[in-house]
Amino acid sequence: MFPLGTVLFPHGVLPLHVFEPRYRMMTERCLADDATFGVVLIERGSEVGGNDQRFDVGTAARILQAGRLEDGRYVLMTVGEQRVRVQEWLPDDPYPRANVVPLSDHADDDAGAALPDLAADLRRLLELRAQLGEPVPGVEVALPDDPVHASFEACALAALGPLDGQRLLELDDAGQRLRDLSSLVRDEVAVLEFRLGE
């Protein structure tokens, strides 16, 4: 398990700089066994040194690319694969570990109806952030037709605060995730338009 100050969604990409010895060891095991590791949001505490409190819903991640630096640090490119729930935290020896179960997602027949409006709102959000000089991903906003997949990609693109992201990650219903995300995106667009005097 890799507790972080950020939320990773399935299908989302997460670059990591691994410098703590315990996470170097975890990285080496994942690379040797082609294993996944869990990313969970830290509820309270720090990413470095342990003694943190963690949320119990996170995402299993797979290492896509790994580079090892001369001093033993790793630079990783990872991708989220599936939501997981921690059933039991195990001792953090030699690194944070837990027993987890995969979580399933569902979507009603009309869950995808809001995708065109959400895509347009996301484009506007990224445009406004760029006008404010904030870093934005250089990608075209084109959400997949599958509402579950689309909900995760849209959440990753929106790059909301960690607590909003965690609340969306914990939802099992992709339609509800899309509706809640749409509301959050529209609220942020309104704030950014106000800041820019538009």
Structural description of this entry:
- This protein folds into two domains: 2-102, Archaeosine Trna-guanine Transglycosylase, Chain: A, domain 4, CATH 2.30.130; 111-196, Methane Monooxygenase Hydroxylase, Chain G, domain 1 (Up-down Bundle), CATH 1.20.58.
- It is built from five helices and seven strands, in the order ββαβββββαααα.
- α2 (115-131) runs parallel beside α3, α2 (115-131) packs parallel to α5 and α3 packs parallel to α5.
- The N and C termini lie far apart (44 Å).
- 37% of the residues lie in helices and 27% in strands.
- It has 198 residues and is an alpha+beta fold.
- The protein has helices spanning 21-33, 115-131, 147-158, 162-169, 174-196; strands at 2-4, 13-18, 37-44, 53-54, 57-68, 74-90, 97-102.
- The longest helix is centred in the C-terminal third of the chain and has 23 residues, at 174-196.
- Strands 1, 2, 3, 4, 5, 6 and 7 form a seven-stranded mixed beta sheet that branches.
Query: DSSP strand (E) fraction?
Result: 25-35%
H and E string: EEHEEEEEHHHH
Helix content: 25-40%
The biggest beta sheet reads: 7 strands, mixed
Helix-strand makeup class: alpha+beta
- In CATH terms, what is the architecture of the largest domain? Roll
CATH 4th-level superfamily of the largest domain? LON domain-like
Low-confidence stretches: none
The domain count comes to 2
Give the integer mean of the pLDDT values. 91
CATH topology of the largest domain: Archaeosine Trna-guanine Transglycosylase, Chain: A, domain 4
Rg, Cα atoms, Å? 18 Å
Indicate the multimeric state.
Answer: single chain
